[in-house]
Design a protein that fits this description.
204 residues; 2 domains
Length: 204
């Protein structure tokens, strides 16, 4: 009797394993943050660029620190909402924060942040602030490509859009006040586009 039931039990185990595998594969193809996290980054980027441009065109005081008073608060706000969206997504998908994908994503994120900080400091010390918008485009584009490879969402189009905007700004030597707008608007559009795509995918 026990021998006759054994194949059925084994088949049930195989079905359970197949279901778990399919669930994990579906989870790997989803965005790791909530759609509104992308939208927050998009809005922050556009508003930060507008504030930077308006202040530079009106006040234009050499002692004004744009990174301290505009971009650091903008990064902090975007990072806060991205962290909240990331935690909520992990809870919704019942995925552990110690999974392999999450760990590699965090390592990549920390590496990009460290490299970006070094490059910004280097450009400021060498008085190359005029090229920082192009560098930011390149860093954000490369980061989006890395994120797309790790989490498998279709973010390659947005990534190459940001990279293309940086190349256009560099090739045509767009002056500093307007290159900030090109950078902030291209990154903002890419993140808003990503948020809309993620929202549509979640609805399916």
């Amino acid at each position: 009797m026990a021998d006759k039931e054994r194949p059925g039990i084994d088949q049930q185990h195989l079905d359970d394993l197949r279901t778990i595998k399919e669930t994990l594969l579906r989870a790997e193809k989803k965005h790791l943050v909530e759609p509104y996290s992308y939208c927050v980054w998009g809005v922050v980027s556009v508003l930060g660029g507008l504030a930077h441009f308006i202040i530079q065109q009106t006040i234009a005081h050499p002692s004004f620190n744009y990174f301290l008073f505009i971009w650091i608060p903008a990064f902090a706000l975007g990072g806060f909402f991205e962290t909240v969206g990331f935690i909520r997504r992990m809870a919704r998908e019942a995925l552990p924060l110690t999974s392999k994908t999450v760990i590699w994503l965090l390592i990549a994120f920390l590496g990009v942040c460290a490299a970006f900080a070094v490059v910004v400091i280097l450009f400021v010390r060498l008085h190359g602030e005029a090229y920082l918008p192009v560098v930011i485009n390149l860093f954000v584009g490369i980061s989006l490509i890395g994120y797309a490879l790790l989490s498998c969402p279709p973010l390659f189009v947005q990534a190459y859009f940001v990279l293309l905007a940086g190349v256009v700004s560099f090739v045509f030597q767009i002056p500093a006040p307007y290159s900030v707008l090109v950078t902030s608007f291209s990154i903002g559009a890419a993140f808003l586009w990503a948020g809309w795509s993620a929202w549509r995918k979640d609805r399916k």
